[in-house]
Amino acid sequence: MGLNADRAFIAVDGGNSKTDAVAATADGRVHAYVRTGTSSPHRLGYREAVDLLGKLIDTVRAEARWGSEVPLARVDALLAGVDLPVEVERLNADARSRGWADEVVLDNDVFALLRAGTSDRNAVAVICGAGMNSVGRNASDEWSRFPALGPTTGDWGGGEDLGDAVLFHAARAEDGRGPATALCAAVRAHFGTGTAEDAAIGLHFGRFPRDMVHGLVPRLFAAADAGDAVAESVVERQAAEIIAMVRVGARRLGLGKGPFTIVGGGGVLAAAPAALHRHLAPILEAEFPLASYTGLDRPPVLGAAWTALDALTGATDTAAHRSLAAGIAAMEPVRVAY
Known about the structure:
By secondary structure, the chain is α/β, with parallel strands linked by helices.
């Protein structure tokens, strides 16, 4: 490998359920693609998350057949759970002390979503996976972001919140405190229980893993599509939360009156549920008539890889960028567990 021309880098996109890493070079060639479980420091711990990144970097280097003679120009790791400035500082200090590359950058995974969705300098991204988060930027390189710690910082509408809402309404419908809803049957079918209460008790005692709650989301959207009023009210609330994040980001950055790009992604939005977009589309069009909406249809790790490539090339749309996108799309990740 001619490293002067083909500088090597590793890019990582880490979510609450999976983490993708690619090894690539500045000419746009993809040399390896690896997937493992969560890398979120909120779930693993700060040092443990950086330790996992080190193992992942070793694995993806081995898959790429890069020995010690291949230095890394960059490692860009964009992870769920890197939310606060103090967390960004702490994790970067630890990661940079490991000597992985000439330049090491850790930040939140919403930046991978934003870059994978657009190179527009005026843009707002909203990620809706297990949780909710948003980031935006303008042409003056000003940024908007949220703490995104969950309900304590005003966030609602991620997959865990939606699943909890399904359980809430199913329980109340079942015991008479709330209106009848198809969500009762959805909970029973999902957990294989006789009642929604049985499902709640099973979760309480650990008979069902907490991760199963997120799995109720497709059933919520199906019930809303079928006309269930209670399910529809939950979806309407989620749409309002997404709009609120876009509205605040656009206002902070002075984007509301002009053209800008809105990027939506994460597990929930990537599924493009009709029930949700039925509420989102007319409000977005009314409030931001000059904005364009992009639903991310490519792996967010591409955004992390493009972030690294942008830094190495000083450009955002080159043959190398297109080659990188094609290479990632053509590869199946090697799955590993640590």
